[in-house]
Write a sequence for this structure.
């Protein structure tokens, strides 16, 4: 006897030895369940997008406003973008440090609680590299997101293509403008190219 024709299989399907349902009936219920799930994803899914990287320009607001204007079902999250608060949170909460290394280490640890949690919860991680500063934390966030298997979009000007080639290689998409990120989100969520 072939395993799929066994008594146990008939019971699982609800066939003659089970609950009196035919294989065709069970298959129809399965297909109906899949259709309900697809409709749920289309109608109900809210995407979570983590916006990591440089904090000195309004690129996050451009992406948020563009997504809102297109009616995209997206919830955005980000690291703390108040530079002073981000630098000093550790010592403000846990106590002063004379040594700058430990001052920074406390802040990095406290910030990592937020960063790790939000990256882990994200469907898509967007990491922006700006032109003014070396964003080591952005590179770390990109690597962490890639290690978690998150969908990763890297955003940087064209002149950074060479120094960021390894980071770019880990990404599913590399954009040069926040508007391109909005177009990516629109396409990924709706499955059609905007006209």
């Amino acid at each position: 006897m072939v395993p799929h024709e066994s008594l146990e299989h008939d019971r699982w399907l609800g066939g003659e030895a089970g609950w009196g349902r035919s294989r065709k009936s069970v298959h129809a219920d399965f297909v109906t369940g899949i259709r309900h799930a697809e409709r749920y994803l289309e109608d109900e899914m809210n995407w979570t997008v983590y916006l990591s990287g440089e904090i000195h320009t309004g690129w996050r607001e451009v992406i948020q406003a563009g997504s809102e204007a297109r009616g995209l079902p997206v919830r955005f999250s980000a690291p703390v973008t108040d530079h002073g608060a981000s630098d000093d949170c550790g010592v403000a909460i846990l106590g002063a440090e004379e040594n700058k290394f430990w001052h920074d280490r406390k802040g990095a640890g406290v910030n990592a609680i937020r960063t790790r949690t939000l990256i882990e919860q994200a469907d898509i991680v967007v990491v922006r590299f700006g032109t003014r500063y070396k964003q080591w934390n952005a590179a770390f966030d990109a690597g962490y997101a890639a290690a978690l298997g998150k969908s990763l979009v890297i955003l940087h000007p064209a002149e950074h293509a060479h120094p960021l080639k390894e980071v770019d290689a880990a990404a599913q998409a590399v954009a040069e403008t926040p508007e391109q990120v909005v177009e990516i989100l629109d396409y990924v969520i709706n499955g059609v190219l905007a006209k």
